Known about the structure:
By secondary structure, the protein is α+β, with helices and mostly antiparallel strands. The chain has three helices and five strands; from the N terminus they run E-E-H-E-E-E-H-H.
Amino acid sequence: MATIAIGISKGPGGYTCKVPVNALAEDGVPPEEGDTVQYSVSGTVQSVSGGTATVSIDSINGEPVSEEASESPEEEAAEGPGESTADMGTRLRKEAKGQALPF
C-alpha cells in the first residue's frame, strides 16, 4: 500500500491539501482551477503527535490510491519512456540463447 502525501496546511484562506487530479476526475474529466469538488477519503492513522495525526491515504472515492496516481505528467516524463518493445525482444533473445525450450 502506498503512502501518498496529501499535505494539509493552514494558510490565510483556511486549510488546503494536494490531491492527485486524476483521483478527482468525473467521467474522465479532471477538475480545473475554481471548480468545486466533493470526494471521500479513507485512510489509516499512522501516528499521532500532539493535536496532529499522520494518515496514510488508502483510497479516494473508493478507488485505491497508488504512487502512480499521484505523479504529475512532468514526474512521469522524468522517469523516461521505459524499455521499447524492440529492446525487450533483443534482451529476451539474448537471455534465451542456449536455453532449452520450455515445451
